[in-house]
Amino acid sequence: MIIIILNERRTKILIKIINANLPIKVDELASLFKVSNRTIRYDLNKIDEFLKHNNLPQLIRKPNIGVKFSNLIKDKNEVLKLLGNVNFYHYALKQNERINIILSDLIGYRDYTTINNLAEKLMVSRPTIINDLKYVRRWLQDHDLELESMPKYGIKVLGNENKLRKAAIELIMETMDIDKALDIIKTPIYKKINVGMDNEIRKLFADIDLEYIEECIKMAERELNTIFSDIAYTGIVIHIAIAIKRIQLGKDIIIPRDELESLKNTREFKVALNIAKMLEDHFHIILPIDEVGYITIHFLGSNITNTKRRENKNQIDYRKLAERIIKTASSLLGMDLLKDRQLINGLTDHLIPTIYRLKHELDLKNPIVAEIKNNYGKLFEIVKHALKPIEDYTEKKLTEDEIAYFVMHFGAAIERLNGQEIIRPNILIVCSTGIGTAKMLSTRLKSIFNVNVVGTVAYHQINETLKDRHVDLIISTIPIESKKVNTVVVSPLLNDNDIELIKQYIVELKQRHEFKHITYESCVNKQFVENIIFKGYKLGLDVIKEFHDELTKERIEGLLLHILLMINRLAFNSTYKMENIHEINTSSNVLKRLKSIFDRNGIDIPESEIVTIIQYFK
């Protein structure tokens, strides 16, 4: 029997063509998949072979127009159905995909399996699996787990149940984009087709009613008056699904008694108890109180997109911690962010779940951490330094993903300043003759050079001060040596020669600051545009999720595009100016649901925009 294999790229190309409404040109596909036009043409030929082998219509190619597939829904469904059931006979796995599937197999079932079984399943040789297992062992060791090998039985994973579940969640979140993970736990109107590891995860949860778990989480959102972010939402659903599978296998976790007693005093624990009862009735299992506690921890550690979280007795401590972090960052940035109440409140709210995550070793992935580091490398390092009090308090290291979320808070605050902050060189005065002389020197420096004196210290305080403050220049009345910062030695009374020497340094520093400010402002503008795109995309998804059963595919696509453009118009104050606006039926069910979505996203939509959106529902 002849077997036609589609590799990862060809599978994605076929799905792209099927999902497209219009023909796609070869050069567009080449650009999208970062290969040559010639490679794409070769891939298209192989796709045609695959389609022909499965008695399906081949691709339609038109010169100067592009490539498309049959318009018949029946044909498209047949291909999607085929791809949805693709096994490893039809799909050429890469090494990293094999490693992830082996990990999923070992962690998901926690029973012995053999190298021969894995080789047969993945359609590769025994030596290939043996080589892959080297990387599997390394991954498991990084997660405090080990791979046991026993003659006549095979191999299996050993380790703490808590660590094992954490590893299972991380494996899923590591190997899948958030939209793929959401696709697996949801049943959207247009289902993405994934192969390889994605299919393996689907099989892992095949006997778990994920939709019911989803309903439980939605109930939790209502009771907690909170909306979980997609990443948190997905993580909670996957955690509960894995917990159910492990409980069915007789495996459960233990939480320290004092921690459990502390959790029982939270509102989240009461909600978790209600959910536990629903899960017990639906899945015919018993959830120990420790499992309820662990669900509570996930609620408390979830990042949120909207909340009216009530203040608790520890709230003031979180606020003080937030202010301390902002003060450090402000000093290093050379700008005052402590007046930004929005930053203080946002950071305070973000600290609460962050500290829960750190204490309980819950990972939170940030899908744009690479972009944040790339675009805001300096700000990333400054925020990382400013967040050290969190690490000291929890005795845990913050991941780059976590730091990136804080960077977003600070980036928004800097954007709000909108270039109005005048950046002045930061000067540290070192004086050995007493506070009176130091104050006089400070006053003269400020009046002559318009600098920011960050402090006056004794010689032995220099190194400690430089750890917490950004200093551009040290002005000292005694000779000192500092490898980190330029130093000028002056008379306590500041003579003309001293002034001329300082002037040279100040001019150079101000030029450097101005350049840095311009460069940073351009980055902020870029972030502003990215924020607009993200906001429009999220709002569009929320609207489509609410109304997908009531709109055609064409109207959904049109509405999504309209919302993206609308958010852009709102950002730049260029909304529709419509005369003779038709009266809106304020009792309309559609209008009420739309306004609810807009309110949740914190967006005030003008009447002219609402009129145009309503047209999509007629």
TrEMBL record:
**EC number(s) in its UniProt entry?**
2.7.1.69
Identify the residues that the record assigns to the HTH deoR-type domain, covering every copy: 7-69
The source organism is Thermoanaerobacterium thermosaccharolyticum (strain ATCC 7956 / DSM 571 / NCIMB 9385 / NCA 3814 / NCTC 13789 / WDCM 00135 / 2032) (Clostridium thermosaccharolyticum)
EC main group = transferase
Q: Manganese as a keyword?
A: no
Give every PTS EIIB type-2 domain span. 425-514
What does the entry give for GO biological process?
A: phosphoenolpyruvate-dependent sugar phosphotransferase system
Q: Where is the PRD domain?
A: 204-309, 313-420
Which superkingdom heads the taxonomic lineage of this protein's source?
Bacteria
The protein's name in its UniProt record: Transcriptional antiterminator, BglG
